[in-house]
Write a structure and sequence with these properties.
This protein is α/β, with parallel strands linked by helices. The chain has one domain. About 25% of the residues lie in helices and about 35% in strands. The chain has four helices and eight strands. The chain has a four-stranded mixed sheet. A hairpin with a 2-residue loop joins strand 6 and strand 7. The longest helix has about 30 residues.
């Protein structure tokens, strides 16, 4: 399966050229977009990749990452790739340990991914044909924590949500494209939220008690 750089379509539409706040890391990285080619007619969507993002080198001896599977497995089949697979790939490619034995441990956990679909309207394009529209929601719970060599621990939990509208007249290909755009938007938000906050946790600022 071909690969396609993440964020390109959304950055081209919304955030082109936007710099992301620097993480509390040994090096620095900017969240830069790269464009993706349109899907060839009749072919499956290209796999999402994060190769265009420079790895963020955390001042930690170890970085633990874990992602639990989606709660609603039937809805996860709507995606060309399950959200849990994409999130694990993002964490693995984006965050690396660059500290020494004197540094602590960072944990990035996604304990829950919820997929929800709710009918919001019904309409009739003709007297013989009825179509329904649905709001499709993705909720991602994220927990970030840092434990230093003395055993002191700091953590922060947050929930991200992204929504789109689908209808039952969509082809499988169109639905997958809409959900891929939703995931691109979610990853932009996720990257910014982690980028803004994990350095504060590692610095033990009291505002996150």
């Amino acid at each position: 399966m071909a690969n396609v750089c993440m964020f390109g379509r959304v950055y081209g539409r919304r955030l082109m050229g936007m710099a992301v706040v620097l993480l509390f890391v040994a090096g620095c990285g900017l969240l830069a977009g790269c464009t993706s080619s349109p899907k060839p007619q009749g072919l499956p969507l290209a796999a999402m990749t994060f190769a265009h993002l420079e790895p963020m080198r955390l001042s930690a001896f170890t970085v633990h990452k874990s992602v639990e599977p989606e709660q609603n497995s039937s809805l996860s089949g709507y995606f060309s790739e399950r959200p849990s697979v994409l999130i694990k790939r993002y964490l693995d490619q984006r965050f690396v340990a660059a500290g020494g034995a004197q540094d602590g441990t960072v944990s990035l956990r996604v304990p829950q991914i919820r997929l929800e679909q709710e009918q919001i309207s019904t309409y009739k394009p003709s007297i013989f044909w009825e179509r329904k529209t649905y709001r499709f929601d993705v909720f991602v719970d994220v927990t970030m924590s840092y434990r230093d060599q003395s055993g002191n621990n700091k953590s922060l939990a947050m929930t991200l949500r992204r929504s789109t509208v689908l209808d039952d007249g969509m082809t499988v290909s169109r639905r997958e494209e809409e959900l891929q755009i939703l995931m691109e938007e979610l990853f932009i938000d996720l990257d910014k939220q982690i980028n803004d906050r994990i350095g504060l946790i590692m610095a033990y600022l009291p505002s996150f008690e």
